[in-house]
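Final report, closing paragraph on structural work. Over the funding period we assembled a curated collection of sequence-structure pairs, and we close with a single example.
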Amino acid sequence: MGMNTKMSYENPLLTVTLDEVRNRSILGSILKASYENVACDSCLYVLIRHKYEQLKPLMKDLVTIYDLARCYGFDDNSKTIYVLFGDNYKKLHETCNWSILLYSIESALTDFDKKEKYKTLKISLDDDVLTEKHSVSENNGEYSSAFKQEYGTVAVGGTFDHLHDGHKILLSASSFIARDILIVGVTGEKLLVHKKYAEFLQSYNYRVEQVRKFLKLINYEQRVDIYEINDVWANSFRT
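Its predicted structure, as stored:
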């Protein structure tokens, strides 16, 4: 169902094609317009309608989207952004409870799972980008299909306090290359006692919860083992 009224929505899902992601001016216009459709204290989910096979192009696209989104006000503590990709979104309909589907071109909704469940809103782009083609220039094989780069078990660690764009990119990449198990070390509270502004840090349990929730957005069924980092040598963990 199409809509053209100007409203804001809680937790909308913006679907974008790979062509749109690779055109910086079009992507910027899409994110700028989408910001106005996101309710305060809510978040925008951005779904790249592409199944990646290699880490390098995925990383490049994630960095581009998160960087541009920050330029237009996302992650200002009132509106947050999460970037999804591939088909994992099909497992998130109930978890995320998206209020509406945002899109710029019809192809971004092609074969979208359970599309009939949602209201849709076509967002308007800035006049100066309307004439640009939604197409990707030749890339000399940089983004050609190849065997997926992956490892049986991948380990990553950090404080993961107030989950920010850098954390999201790191966790997305780590999940992407982990075939069987993703191990995440989260810094325990004992190590953070003397950290500057320690009183403003989120609790260990809350940080773990946020990491788990985010990783579900990337690979819902992936095995994720989270351990508390208890010393600087990282040789003492517990679940």
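The chain is about 30% helix and 20% strand. The beta strands are 13-16, 42-48, 79-85, 101-103, 120-122, 151-158, 178-187, 223-229, 237-238. We thank the funder for supporting this effort.
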